[in-house]
Sequence to fold (589 residues):
Amino acid sequence: MEILVCVKRVPTVGGAITLTADSRAIDTRASGFAISPHEECAVEEAVRLAGRFGGAVTVVSLGPAEAEEQLRGCLALGASAAVLVETAAGAETGPMATAAALHSVAAAGAFDLILLGNEASDTGGYQVGIRLAHLLGWPAATGAKAITVADDGLSLLASRSYRGVTEAFTLPLPCVVTVKEGINLPRYPSLPGRLRAKRAAVKRIPVAADGPVPAGDFRMTRLRVPDAPRKQATVLGQGSAAVPALVAVLAELGVIS
Amino acid sequence: MTVWCLVELDGDAVADASLRALTLARGLLPDTAAGSGVAAVVFGAPPLGDLAAYGAADVYVVSGVDGYAPRAWARVLAGLLGPAAESTGAGRTGGPRPAVVAAGTEHGNEVLAHLGAITGLPMAANCVAVSASGGGKLDLVRQRWAGLLLEEAVLDAPAALLTVATDAVAPAPATAAGAAVVHEISAAVSDADLLVRAVESPGGPSGVSLATARVVVGGGRGVGSAEGFAPLEELAELLGGVVGVSRVVTSEGWRPHSMQVGQTGTKITPDLYLACGISGAIQHFAGCSGARHIIAINTDASAPMMTRADYAVVGDLHEVLPALVKALRDRV
Fold:
C-alpha cells in the first residue's frame, strides 16, 4: 500500500500569541515550529498501515525551505521518502493553491491512500483534503478517529464521533482521509530512525507559478489576538468551606433547582 | 440574491450551532430588502417554528438523500446556488451576492468544503463576524488556531461560502419573524455523490455529547489519576452533564482522547463549565471559551483558569467535590 501523507510546518504556540509588527504573521522569534498535531497522527497511522500491508510512506509538505525540518521528523517516524514543494519565505498559500500543489505531487505517484490532518492548526481552513480529493476524482472522509483497512486492501472504514453518535464511512481505495488527534498515539522517533532521517534525501520542487484560476478572491488583511475576557473571578472561598456558596451559585445559574 | 443556510438538526430541534449560523446569515441580507429572509435548507423534518423565529422566510426540505452524505449535500446546495456560483470575474455585479452559510461543525465545514471544490469558490471556515464592504465584497473575521487568533479578510467572490464558529456568535431570534414558506425539493445527485455516507451507531454510554452538553465538569492534572475522576463523574451525573478533560489527562492515559476539550479536542458551549484541577493552557481555552459561565476549582489561586473564570474556589478538588456532592444530595 503506497501512502502519501501531507504535513504542514506550523508555529508552536505557548502561553500567548504575539504577532509580527505588520500583524500578518505570528512572531516566531521566541517559539519553535512543529508538525501540525493532527498530521503527526496521520504520519503514525500511515506508518502502521504500511507495516501491516507493505509498501512505503511518502510525506509531502508545501512550505518554506525550513519545512525540511518537519519532513525529516516524519522520516524519523518511519516515512521512507519526503517531498518539499518550496514556497517563498513568509508567503502564505491559500487552501485552493495548496490543494493544487499537493495534487501535482499526488498525481505524479501511484498512491492508494492519501492522509492529511483534519485541519492545519494555524490557518484552520478545513478544506484542503476535500479539495485535493475532488482534483483527483477520489472519495474523501474527514475527521477520522479510527481507520480500518479491509484485509483485501480494497476499501477502508473511517469513523468518528458526531453529537454523541458514531459515524462510519466506507470508502473504496484510492481515497483521501483526514484524521484527528486521538486516532493513535504517535511514537517517539528511534535513534536509528533519527540517524536515517538525517542522511535521507528530501526532494525539493518549486511551487508551480501558474496555479488554477479561482472563481473568487479571499485575502487576509491582518491578524489580531482576541481580547481576553476582562473577568474578575469572584472567589467563593477556600476548600470545602466554599460549598454553600458554590451551591448557591449553581442554583443562581439554574443548573440545580 | 439569496442567502442560503444549511440547517442541521439535533433530534427534532434545530442544532444550537445552526441557530448561530442562521443568526450570522441574517446579517448578510441587504437592509433594503424588507421582509426578506434567509432560505434554510434542511435534510430531514424541518422544525418550522424555530426556523421562522430565527429569520427563515423560506425552508427548502430536501428528499432523496438518505442520511448524511457530505458530497451529495454539497451537490444539492450547488444546485440551489445555481449559475451564480459558476460566473467568474466578468460576471460579477457590484450588488449583494448570494451566500451559503453553514455551522462550523464537522458536518458544516465538510459540506461547504465539498461545495467549494464543486464550484471552485473560496470557502471561509469558522467566521465570527461578516459585513458588506461595498461592491459586493464582504469583510469578515474568522477564527484561526481554534479561536486563539482572529483573521480579518476580504472575500470577493460571485457567491460567499461561509461557516460560522460554534462558540462565538450568540444565537439570537429575528426581531420581525414571519411564517416560513416550505419548498419540497428532491435531490439531483449522482451515485458518486452518494458513495460516501455515514452509517450511524450509538456513541458513548451516556448519550449526552460533550459538544452539546449544558453542563461540563472538567478535570485536569489536579485530578491526579484515572481513579480520581470518580467524584467528577458523580457530580456530572447529578447535574445532568458530562465529564471533559484537558490534554494532560489523555496524554497520561487517564481518559480517552474523545473526552478532550481544547484546540485539538472538542469545543464546548455549555451553560456551565466546572473546571477542576485545570490550570488553563491557551489550547484548553480554545475549547472552553464558549462556555457561558466558568467555575474553577484549583489549589493555585493564580492559575489562568482561576483568573479567567466567573467564580473560583481555592482548594483541592478531592476535598471540595465530595463535599459538594454530599451537599447536593442532602438538598433533596
